[in-house]
User: Fold these one by one.
Assistant:
Number 1:
Amino acid sequence: MSNAKSVHVAMVDPTATPRQSGDEPGADVAAYLARHGIDVTVDALPSAGRSVAQVLQRHANDVAADMIVMGAYGHSRCASSYSVASPDRCSMKLGYPC
Protein backbone atom coordinates (compact mmCIF):
# COMPACT_ATOMS: atom_id res chain seq x y z
CA MET A 1 0.00 0.00 0.00
CA SER A 2 2.92 2.34 0.54
CA ASN A 3 3.35 2.57 -3.25
CA ALA A 4 -0.26 3.66 -3.80
CA LYS A 5 -1.02 7.30 -4.63
CA SER A 6 -3.95 7.07 -2.24
CA VAL A 7 -5.94 4.51 -0.27
CA HIS A 8 -9.68 4.59 0.35
CA VAL A 9 -10.96 2.75 3.41
CA ALA A 10 -14.52 2.00 2.30
CA MET A 11 -17.18 0.77 4.70
CA VAL A 12 -20.72 -0.12 3.73
CA ASP A 13 -23.37 0.95 6.25
CA PRO A 14 -20.88 1.37 9.13
CA THR A 15 -22.21 1.67 12.66
CA ALA A 16 -20.43 3.63 15.37
CA THR A 17 -20.13 1.42 18.44
CA PRO A 18 -17.68 2.62 21.10
CA ARG A 19 -16.80 -0.92 22.21
CA GLN A 20 -16.12 -2.26 18.69
CA SER A 21 -15.30 0.44 16.15
CA GLY A 22 -15.11 3.56 18.28
CA ASP A 23 -17.10 6.71 17.73
CA GLU A 24 -15.84 7.07 14.18
CA PRO A 25 -15.64 3.81 12.21
CA GLY A 26 -12.50 3.58 10.11
CA ALA A 27 -10.58 6.21 12.05
CA ASP A 28 -8.27 3.68 13.70
CA VAL A 29 -7.18 2.04 10.45
CA ALA A 30 -6.86 5.46 8.78
CA ALA A 31 -4.60 6.68 11.59
CA TYR A 32 -2.48 3.55 11.30
CA LEU A 33 -2.04 3.97 7.54
CA ALA A 34 -1.35 7.70 7.87
CA ARG A 35 1.41 7.01 10.42
CA HIS A 36 3.09 4.98 7.68
CA GLY A 37 2.94 7.86 5.20
CA ILE A 38 -0.07 6.64 3.24
CA ASP A 39 -2.56 9.19 1.87
CA VAL A 40 -5.81 7.72 3.22
CA THR A 41 -9.48 8.67 2.93
CA VAL A 42 -12.29 7.03 4.92
CA ASP A 43 -15.48 6.54 2.89
CA ALA A 44 -18.72 5.54 4.64
CA LEU A 45 -21.02 4.25 1.92
CA PRO A 46 -24.78 3.63 2.26
CA SER A 47 -26.01 0.42 0.67
CA ALA A 48 -29.42 1.88 -0.21
CA GLY A 49 -30.78 -1.61 -0.86
CA ARG A 50 -27.84 -2.70 -3.03
CA SER A 51 -25.49 -5.58 -2.25
CA VAL A 52 -22.09 -4.86 -0.72
CA ALA A 53 -20.47 -6.01 -3.99
CA GLN A 54 -22.52 -3.52 -6.00
CA VAL A 55 -21.73 -0.66 -3.61
CA LEU A 56 -18.00 -1.43 -3.66
CA GLN A 57 -17.91 -1.82 -7.43
CA ARG A 58 -19.55 1.55 -7.97
CA HIS A 59 -17.25 3.20 -5.44
CA ALA A 60 -14.18 1.60 -7.01
CA ASN A 61 -15.25 2.97 -10.37
CA ASP A 62 -15.97 6.41 -8.88
CA VAL A 63 -12.50 6.70 -7.33
CA ALA A 64 -10.76 5.01 -10.30
CA ALA A 65 -9.39 2.21 -8.09
CA ASP A 66 -6.78 -0.09 -9.56
CA MET A 67 -7.24 -2.75 -6.89
CA ILE A 68 -9.53 -3.74 -4.03
CA VAL A 69 -8.05 -5.18 -0.84
CA MET A 70 -10.68 -6.63 1.45
CA GLY A 71 -10.76 -7.84 5.02
CA ALA A 72 -13.27 -8.21 7.79
CA TYR A 73 -12.91 -7.34 11.43
CA GLY A 74 -14.31 -9.57 14.18
CA HIS A 75 -16.58 -8.55 17.03
CA SER A 76 -13.79 -8.13 19.54
CA ARG A 77 -10.07 -7.53 19.43
CA CYS A 78 -9.56 -11.14 20.55
CA ALA A 79 -11.62 -12.42 17.63
CA SER A 80 -10.18 -10.06 15.02
CA SER A 81 -9.31 -11.77 11.78
CA TYR A 82 -9.41 -11.37 8.08
CA SER A 83 -12.36 -13.10 6.56
CA VAL A 84 -11.49 -15.41 3.71
CA ALA A 85 -14.74 -16.68 2.26
CA SER A 86 -16.98 -13.62 2.09
CA PRO A 87 -14.50 -11.07 0.70
CA ASP A 88 -13.19 -13.59 -1.83
CA ARG A 89 -16.67 -14.24 -3.17
CA CYS A 90 -17.35 -10.52 -3.22
CA SER A 91 -14.14 -9.68 -5.08
CA MET A 92 -14.82 -12.36 -7.68
CA LYS A 93 -18.12 -10.63 -8.44
CA LEU A 94 -16.38 -7.26 -8.69
CA GLY A 95 -13.86 -8.20 -11.35
CA TYR A 96 -11.01 -6.27 -9.68
CA PRO A 97 -7.64 -7.80 -8.84
CA CYS A 98 -7.16 -8.88 -5.24
Number 2:
Amino acid sequence: MRRRSSRGPVPPVPLRGPKDTVLITPGATVRIALQFDKPADPDTPYMYHCHLLYHEDSGMMDQFVVVDPGQRAGTPPRYEPAGPGADGHAHAHS
Protein backbone atom coordinates (compact mmCIF):
# COMPACT_ATOMS: atom_id res chain seq x y z
CA MET A 1 0.00 0.00 0.00
CA ARG A 2 1.03 3.59 -0.41
CA ARG A 3 0.25 6.40 1.98
CA ARG A 4 -1.72 9.04 0.09
CA SER A 5 -2.02 11.78 2.70
CA SER A 6 -1.11 12.47 6.28
CA ARG A 7 -1.53 15.83 8.00
CA GLY A 8 -1.43 17.48 4.61
CA PRO A 9 -1.60 16.53 0.96
CA VAL A 10 1.94 15.08 0.62
CA PRO A 11 3.47 12.65 3.14
CA PRO A 12 7.05 13.28 4.30
CA VAL A 13 9.73 11.53 2.20
CA PRO A 14 10.34 8.63 4.67
CA LEU A 15 6.63 7.76 4.58
CA ARG A 16 6.34 7.61 0.79
CA GLY A 17 6.69 4.35 -1.09
CA PRO A 18 5.38 0.85 -0.44
CA LYS A 19 4.48 0.01 3.16
CA ASP A 20 2.77 -2.84 5.00
CA THR A 21 2.14 -0.91 8.22
CA VAL A 22 1.17 2.69 8.90
CA LEU A 23 1.55 4.60 12.18
CA ILE A 24 -1.61 6.55 12.91
CA THR A 25 -1.46 8.89 15.89
CA PRO A 26 -4.55 9.61 18.06
CA GLY A 27 -7.05 11.80 16.22
CA ALA A 28 -5.23 11.47 12.89
CA THR A 29 -6.69 10.37 9.57
CA VAL A 30 -4.57 8.62 6.95
CA ARG A 31 -5.61 7.83 3.38
CA ILE A 32 -4.00 4.83 1.72
CA ALA A 33 -4.05 3.42 -1.79
CA LEU A 34 -3.99 -0.32 -2.46
CA GLN A 35 -3.50 -2.08 -5.77
CA PHE A 36 -4.70 -5.63 -6.27
CA ASP A 37 -3.19 -7.22 -9.36
CA LYS A 38 -4.22 -10.82 -8.71
CA PRO A 39 -7.58 -12.18 -9.86
CA ALA A 40 -10.43 -11.02 -7.63
CA ASP A 41 -11.77 -13.67 -5.28
CA PRO A 42 -15.09 -12.74 -3.67
CA ASP A 43 -14.79 -15.62 -1.18
CA THR A 44 -11.31 -14.90 0.22
CA PRO A 45 -11.11 -11.90 2.55
CA TYR A 46 -8.18 -9.65 3.33
CA MET A 47 -7.78 -8.42 6.90
CA TYR A 48 -6.69 -5.14 8.38
CA HIS A 49 -6.12 -4.45 12.07
CA CYS A 50 -4.50 -2.28 14.70
CA HIS A 51 -1.37 -3.72 16.28
CA LEU A 52 -2.54 -2.72 19.77
CA LEU A 53 -4.44 -5.75 21.07
CA TYR A 54 -6.87 -3.70 23.14
CA HIS A 55 -7.78 -1.80 19.97
CA GLU A 56 -8.32 -5.05 18.05
CA ASP A 57 -10.58 -6.25 20.85
CA SER A 58 -12.53 -2.98 20.59
CA GLY A 59 -13.30 -3.42 16.90
CA MET A 60 -10.26 -2.01 15.10
CA MET A 61 -9.95 -5.21 13.09
CA ASP A 62 -12.03 -6.14 10.08
CA GLN A 63 -12.02 -7.93 6.73
CA PHE A 64 -12.84 -7.01 3.14
CA VAL A 65 -12.96 -8.82 -0.18
CA VAL A 66 -11.84 -7.63 -3.60
CA VAL A 67 -14.32 -8.07 -6.43
CA ASP A 68 -14.31 -7.29 -10.13
CA PRO A 69 -16.64 -4.54 -11.42
CA GLY A 70 -20.21 -5.84 -11.30
CA GLN A 71 -19.25 -8.77 -9.08
CA ARG A 72 -20.72 -9.19 -5.58
CA ALA A 73 -18.96 -10.27 -2.40
CA GLY A 74 -19.28 -14.00 -1.79
CA THR A 75 -19.39 -16.02 1.40
CA PRO A 76 -15.95 -16.60 2.90
CA PRO A 77 -15.38 -20.02 4.49
CA ARG A 78 -16.03 -20.09 8.23
CA TYR A 79 -13.20 -21.16 10.51
CA GLU A 80 -14.21 -23.86 12.98
CA PRO A 81 -11.71 -25.00 15.64
CA ALA A 82 -11.15 -28.77 15.58
CA GLY A 83 -11.81 -29.23 19.31
CA PRO A 84 -11.02 -27.94 22.80
CA GLY A 85 -7.91 -25.78 22.68
CA ALA A 86 -7.72 -26.00 18.87
CA ASP A 87 -8.15 -22.24 18.60
CA GLY A 88 -4.72 -21.75 20.19
CA HIS A 89 -6.11 -20.39 23.45
CA ALA A 90 -5.52 -22.22 26.68
CA HIS A 91 -8.26 -21.83 29.27
CA ALA A 92 -8.00 -22.86 32.90
CA HIS A 93 -11.18 -24.19 34.50
CA SER A 94 -11.70 -24.52 38.23
Number 3:
Amino acid sequence: MTGPGGRCRYDADALLSWLADSQTQAVIPAKKNRLFKRSFDENLYKDRNKVERYFNKLKQYRRVATRYDKTASCFAGFIYIASTLILLA
Protein backbone atom coordinates (compact mmCIF):
# COMPACT_ATOMS: atom_id res chain seq x y z
CA MET A 1 0.00 0.00 0.00
CA THR A 2 1.73 3.15 -1.12
CA GLY A 3 0.40 6.64 -0.90
CA PRO A 4 1.51 9.97 -2.31
CA GLY A 5 5.25 10.26 -2.68
CA GLY A 6 5.70 6.47 -2.52
CA ARG A 7 5.25 6.39 1.26
CA CYS A 8 3.65 3.34 2.82
CA ARG A 9 0.15 3.77 4.15
CA TYR A 10 -0.02 1.41 7.10
CA ASP A 11 -3.41 2.74 8.18
CA ALA A 12 -5.13 1.98 4.86
CA ASP A 13 -8.45 0.15 5.02
CA ALA A 14 -7.33 -2.37 2.41
CA LEU A 15 -4.25 -3.31 4.43
CA LEU A 16 -6.20 -3.54 7.68
CA SER A 17 -8.85 -5.78 6.11
CA TRP A 18 -6.12 -8.01 4.65
CA LEU A 19 -4.52 -8.27 8.10
CA ALA A 20 -7.89 -9.16 9.63
CA ASP A 21 -8.44 -11.85 6.97
CA SER A 22 -5.06 -13.39 7.77
CA GLN A 23 -5.84 -13.24 11.51
CA THR A 24 -3.02 -10.78 12.18
CA GLN A 25 -3.26 -7.97 14.70
CA ALA A 26 -2.44 -4.43 13.57
CA VAL A 27 0.07 -3.08 16.08
CA ILE A 28 0.26 0.55 14.95
CA PRO A 29 -2.14 3.22 16.21
CA ALA A 30 -4.76 4.74 13.94
CA LYS A 31 -4.07 8.12 12.36
CA LYS A 32 -5.47 11.12 14.20
CA ASN A 33 -7.81 12.11 11.37
CA ARG A 34 -9.61 8.74 11.25
CA LEU A 35 -13.30 8.78 12.10
CA PHE A 36 -13.19 5.35 13.73
CA LYS A 37 -10.32 4.99 16.21
CA ARG A 38 -9.31 1.38 16.66
CA SER A 39 -7.66 0.24 19.85
CA PHE A 40 -4.11 -1.02 19.97
CA ASP A 41 -1.79 -2.49 22.57
CA GLU A 42 0.68 0.24 23.58
CA ASN A 43 3.19 -2.21 25.07
CA LEU A 44 3.19 -4.31 21.91
CA TYR A 45 3.65 -1.14 19.85
CA LYS A 46 6.66 -0.14 21.99
CA ASP A 47 8.18 -3.60 21.54
CA ARG A 48 7.61 -3.43 17.78
CA ASN A 49 9.34 -0.06 17.73
CA LYS A 50 12.35 -1.47 19.60
CA VAL A 51 12.70 -4.28 17.08
CA GLU A 52 12.39 -1.86 14.17
CA ARG A 53 15.05 0.45 15.62
CA TYR A 54 17.35 -2.54 16.22
CA PHE A 55 17.13 -3.60 12.58
CA ASN A 56 17.81 -0.02 11.47
CA LYS A 57 20.95 0.02 13.63
CA LEU A 58 21.94 -3.37 12.25
CA LYS A 59 21.59 -2.11 8.67
CA GLN A 60 24.08 0.67 9.45
CA TYR A 61 26.76 -1.99 9.15
CA ARG A 62 27.54 -2.01 5.46
CA ARG A 63 28.53 -5.65 5.48
CA VAL A 64 25.08 -6.60 6.73
CA ALA A 65 23.13 -4.24 4.49
CA THR A 66 24.84 -5.44 1.31
CA ARG A 67 25.10 -9.13 2.34
CA TYR A 68 28.80 -9.02 1.53
CA ASP A 69 29.61 -12.50 2.87
CA LYS A 70 29.36 -15.42 0.49
CA THR A 71 28.24 -18.09 2.92
CA ALA A 72 25.30 -18.07 5.29
CA SER A 73 27.47 -19.06 8.25
CA CYS A 74 29.82 -16.09 7.73
CA PHE A 75 26.86 -13.76 7.35
CA ALA A 76 25.25 -15.11 10.54
CA GLY A 77 28.57 -14.76 12.35
CA PHE A 78 28.80 -11.10 11.47
CA ILE A 79 25.16 -10.60 12.49
CA TYR A 80 26.14 -11.95 15.93
CA ILE A 81 29.15 -9.65 16.11
CA ALA A 82 27.18 -6.59 15.00
CA SER A 83 24.37 -7.42 17.44
CA THR A 84 26.87 -7.65 20.28
CA LEU A 85 28.35 -4.29 19.34
CA ILE A 86 24.89 -2.73 19.22
CA LEU A 87 23.97 -4.13 22.64
CA LEU A 88 27.25 -2.97 24.19
CA ALA A 89 26.94 0.56 22.80
